[in-house]
Amino acid sequence: MNPATIYHRPLSEFAFATDGTHYVFRLRTGKGEARSCRFFYADRAAMAPELDFACLPMKKIREDRYFDWYEVRLETKLERIAYWFELSDGAETLCYFGDCYEMAGTPTRADYFQLPFNHRADRLSVPEWTKDAVVYNIFPDSFADGFRTLSGGSDGKTGLGGTIRGIAENLDYIASMGFNCIYLNPIFAAESYHRYDTLDYYQVDPHMGSKEGVRALVEKAHSLGIRVLLDGVFNHISSSHFLFQDVLRNGMASKYYSCFYQLPAKPKLPAPGELPEYTCFSYVASMPKTNTADPYLRQYFCDVGVYWIREFDIDGWRLDVANELDDGFLRAFRTAVKAAKPDAIIVGEVWENAAHYLNGDMMDSAMNYDFRRYCRRFFAEETVDAETFDTNVSTLLLRYRENALFAQLNLLDSHDVSRYLSLCGENTDKMELSVLLQMTFPGMPCVFYGDEKGLCGLSESEYRQAMAWGKSHPLEDIYRRLIALRKEHPALRYGDFVTNFAAGRTYSYSRNWENTRITVTMNLGGAPIPAPQTGRLLLKKGGNHAIIGAWEYEVREEWIHGGDDL
């Protein structure tokens, strides 16, 4: 065995508690190198001179092109755990202690891996409702200003004229599709139609409506079983916001000077074509970056987060540019929001690995742009094979603690990227298989408004186009069927994800939950493959029940753990 391929990290996604008595421990090895792995654990605080280790076999849960992944689930009343691993390839046995792969003599307590104490405060606790959530992302300006209408506008502060009332009047449509959560891009007073340059966090943009309209929207949504998430833009504000305006007038004498980054003694707005002399969102001078470590500003934004929960009963926040907010602010914001509403969710805009933020003290979830990226390569662009894609899937499944995994916001597109159907070359077959994976993958599926209507677009003005209310598209029925499938079968929401095979352009995986296995088998344009014949057929694309042809799929259900086939 090659020790360089063996990896474990305590107090991470490799070792964590899910509650007071249940733990998950993971180990990575080189592919095919270990024949068996065993897990040894003991009470690290035991009074005896030597620790008394118990032993459990580890189960291989994933294998990809490079690695095997092993896992053990431990139930114990122990709150302090010392542990180590034993690996065998049949000829050689390797002991993995702490940071050592073999140990001369008798190890001391400090030599073992340690889970020092299972603190309640350190466990990631994510609202349970997230496992059942199917999210509809609305760009408010582009959705509706009434029942199935848009009036339009072009003054820079409004583009297409969407309103809060328009969203409320069309909640029945959203509910009929099967969505039970809406995430709204910014609705607060701002200078631009996108509203990511906030002027007032306590006021609804007058082009969009009023606070009374938001209250009516939330009340109606809740009556339909739909939760509501708002977009919090705290990384930057409008240069016209009163805080920055005071700094422009008074320079270092402003009591808000420390609310911003890298300001000269007397800041000024740059001339056209000049770069700003202060830190901004990107290099956009009209969006100066906030210093959320400043005590006043930190409290100001925490108060905003609490206000919209207490006064309007919203169900959580999506945090814009969350990975540029300081950790202290994220911890303070979480504390404030969870005190106001314990089951509120905090979702961060993080385009890469978000593990740093998902350990229980900052955010509950992140926007899973890597899910989109991997789907784009496999389904839309056909630039990688199934084996490579499955290796990418391993990355998605294993880089977070379990609670965070089931709360990931799995998206194919958003207000910031090209429409996924455009990336598919408007090929509905490719889109359908991508949505099939999205609706059967661990986490919260998130659909950008109009995807179900076949909206396309590569540029900002195109992918933020008006909702196609008068347009019908085959994708509407596809979304309805696949969302209904997810909601009907708990295994698709709560189950383990197990790859059955990944070869060429064919891919098969199962979701296992309690005594049920649901298997998805898809063919991404390759030669026909035999269709599974076990279990009960839930959904099929293709008329030949013996095969799965190009761009076809099957979904089947069967009993496991000794039960009879369905």
Can you walk through the features of this model?
By secondary structure, the protein is α/β, with parallel strands linked by helices. It folds into four domains: 3-122, Immunoglobulin-like (Sandwich), CATH 2.60.40; 134-235 and 292-488, TIM Barrel (Alpha-Beta Barrel); 238-290, Oligo-1,6-glucosidase, domain 2; 493-559, Immunoglobulin-like. The strands form seven sheets. An eight-stranded parallel barrel has the order 10-11-14-17-18-19-20-21. Strands 3, 4, 7, 8 and 9 form a five-stranded antiparallel beta sheet that branches. A hairpin with a 2-residue loop joins strand 15 (280-281) and strand 16 (284-288). Helix 5 (295-312) packs parallel to helix 6 (327-340) and helix 7 (369-380) runs antiparallel to helix 8 (386-398). It is globular, with a radius of gyration of 26 Å. The protein starts with 14 loop residues before the first strand and ends in a 7-residue tail after the last strand.
Describe the secondary structure blueprint for this structure.
Layout lengths: L14 E3 L4 E9 L5 E8 L10 E4 L1 E5 L3 E9 L5 E8 L4 E4 L16 E3 L19 E4 L25 H6 L1 H7 L3 E4 L3 E3 L7 E7 L6 H13 L3 E6 L9 H9 L29 E2 L2 E5 L6 H18 L3 E4 L7 H14 L4 E4 L16 E4 H12 L5 H13 L3 H4 L3 E3 L8 H4 L4 H12 L4 E5 L11 H4 L10 H15 L2 H4 L1 E8 L2 E8 L2 E8 L5 E2 L5 E6 L5 E2 L3 E8 L7
Helix pairs in contact: 5-6, 7-8, 11-13
Short description:
By secondary structure, this protein is an alpha/beta fold.
